[in-house]
């Protein structure tokens, strides 16, 4: 990983302050601690009860027709095996 000198120096100081043996160990620990939360946050959708109720109401409305964009997205998902 390439970073400018100021960033590297700051990381080295933080690593030493926390007692890590190396900068690699420090960076690895940051990734291990933070990546799962970031990935979970990006993979999930959180709605309020009102938003969920509106969503399910729209989904259950048999008079609504899907837009061309939704149909195309569905086709792409099917083609990709989802």
List the helices and strands and how they pair.
Blueprint: H1 5-17, H2 23-43, H3 49-60, H4 68-79
Helix pairs in contact: 1-2
Task: Walk me through this protein's architecture.
- This protein has helices spanning 5-17, 23-43, 49-60, 68-79.
- The protein is mostly helical.
- The chain folds into two domains: 5-43; 49-79, no CATH class.
- The longest helix has 21 residues, at 23-43.
- The radius of gyration is 23 Å and the shape is elongated.
- The two termini are 34 Å apart.
Main features:
single chain; 82 residues; mainly alpha; 4 helices; 71% helix
The residue ranges in which pLDDT falls below 50 over 5 or more consecutive positions are none
Number of domains: 2
Oligomer: single chain
Q: Specify the number of helices.
A: 4
The radius of gyration computed from the alpha-carbon positions, rounded to a whole number of angstroms, is 23 Å
How much of the sequence lies in strands comes to: under 5%
Q: What is the share of helical residues?
A: over 70%
Instruction: Name the shape in a single word.
Output: elongated
- Major sheet description: none
Structural class: mainly alpha
Say how many strands there are: 0
């Amino acid at each position: 990983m390439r970073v400018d000198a100021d960033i590297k120096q700051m990381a080295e100081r933080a690593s030493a302050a926390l007692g890590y043996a190396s900068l690699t160990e420090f960076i690895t620990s940051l990734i291990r601690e933070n990546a799962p939360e970031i990935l979970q946050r990006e993979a999930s959708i959180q709605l309020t009860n009102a938003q969920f109720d509106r969503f399910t109401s729209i989904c259950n409305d048999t008079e609504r027709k899907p837009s061309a964009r939704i149909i195309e997205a569905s086709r792409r998902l099917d083609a990709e095996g989802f």
